[in-house]
Amino acid sequence: MDVKKIKKEIRREMSMYVGQEERSTREFLTQRAKQIVETIETERKISIESAVKDKIISSLCDDFLGLGPLQRLMDDKAVTEIMINGPDRVYIEKDGKKSLCSVKFDDETHLRYIIEKMIAPAGRRVDESSPYVDFSLLGGSRVNVILPPLAIKGATVTIRKFLDYIQSTDDLVKMKTIDNRMAEFLQACVKAKLNILFSGATGSGKTTTLEVLSSYIDPDERIITIEDALELTLRQDHVVSLLTRPPNIEGKGEISPRELFRNTLRMRPTRIILGEVRGEEALDYLQALNSGHRGSLAVIHAATPVDSVSRLETMALYAGINLPVWAIRKQISSGLDLIVQHVQLSDGSRKITHITEVGKIEDNQVELRNIFHYDIEEVSADASVKGEFKVSNRPEFMPIFKKKGIKINESVFKE
Questions:
Q1: Whole-angstrom Cα Rg for the chain
Q2: Cβ count within 10 A of residue 226
Q3: Whose CB among 40, 96, 334, 356 lies 3.0–4.6 Å from 339's, allowing a Cys bridge?
Q4: How many CB atoms lie within 10 A of CB 127?
Q5: Does domain 68-162 have CATH number 3.30.450.90?
Q6: 169-413 has which CATH code?
Q7: Are 68-162 and 169-413 in the same CATH fold?
Q8: Angle at Cα 223 formed by Cα 222 and Cα 229, nearest 5°?
Q9: Whole-angstrom distance between the N-terminal and C-terminal Cα of the chain?
């Protein structure tokens, strides 16, 4: 008896009932699946063990009503990331550590079915002609899919879950991502409309920090976000969310971040939030920072604050305008106020290791001054990291707080 084949047949029969609201209940689908199984047993004169039958029916209901084998991982708040390397290799991240879990798909067809179910509400597509895609689930989790033949061992899916239990800087303090002094300082920076760049490697917590800090933006402000996949969930009412668009099957119709950014400047934004600076839009971003658009928040992939500046320079050159490097550095120096550097340490913990002020041009280089930094004191044999958040300097932009009427305790900058 081929259980997988029988399961496929039942799924095909049951698919006509999915989407009919009055019939898309677990009770109805369970009953219908039982009837189909009984019909198969009668027609083929076979007997399916009760335990196997129950497992098939439960699995199919999970497929139709949720995300199949993935649903329990999505419901588990301790799981922060899910990595699927083909139908029989599913890894998860818990407490910053990655491990192989027991979850498996029946086969590649089953995995593709769940992928299609995830991607449908996003209005994106993934197939042989367009074999990779980024999109977000309705709950805010971000998904990347890449299909064979690019992925050799089967469809590969990476799900970075939206962590809805991180709502404020207090939560970041509890997780030891920052301390209380850093939390107070970052809140003040957002309220004072400083231009902040959130830097770090993939999965280091950049977008989470941005989203938390965005909650301290005044609700009367008009916020415009630009993203490749809808990942940010802002709590204010006056938010305009813009998404880039990939090219269609003929290779036409693409809308790039740069095009959206240019249009955003005509939309009377109070704040612009850029989901990721990754290409030629970096030049438009820098020009906006220098043209009176205060309070911009943006994300960049870089290992250190110095690398963030270097990447901005390089990406601004992608725009194809023959600006000298010194002119780009001048724009970075005068437009950007703060770099918030994120790192995932060897023990899996996520820290903001540097809060760095962007200063003047010195010897043709952008001067960077750490305000806070994380000092690693010891790494034990089991990779546990022991360290401490420390104050490095008092920021030179303190007068901005006074002009904006933002009060910040001077003790924040004392050890």
A1: 25
A2: 26
A3: 356
A4: 11
A5: yes
A6: 3.40.50.300
A7: no
A8: 150
A9: 71
How far is it, in rounded angstroms, from Cα 414 to Cα 296? 28
pLDDT over 60 at 21, yes or no: no
d(CA 277, CA 281): 7
Domain boundaries, the chain: 1-65, 68-162, 169-413
Tokens of 190: 């957002």
Nearest to 81 by CA among 93, 95, 70: 93
Residue with tokens 């996003």: 122
Question: How many Cβ atoms sit within 10 Å of the Cβ of residue 160?
Answer: 21
**Angle formed at CA 73 by CA 70 and CA 75, multiple of 5 degrees:** 110
Token couple for 104:
């498996």
Residue 168: HSE in the Cβ half-sphere, 13 Å Cα cutoff: 4
What is the overall mean pLDDT for the chain? 90
Residue-wise pLDDT for 158-176, tens only, equals 999 987 778 899 999 999 9
User: Which amino acid makes up residue 227?
Assistant: E
Instruction: Round to whole Å and give the CA distance between 10 and 60.
Output: 8
Q: Give the pLDDT score at 24.
A: 65
> Which residues lie closer than 8 Å to 176 by C-beta, 6 or more apart?
349, 351
- The answer on pLDDT for 215 being more than 70 is yes
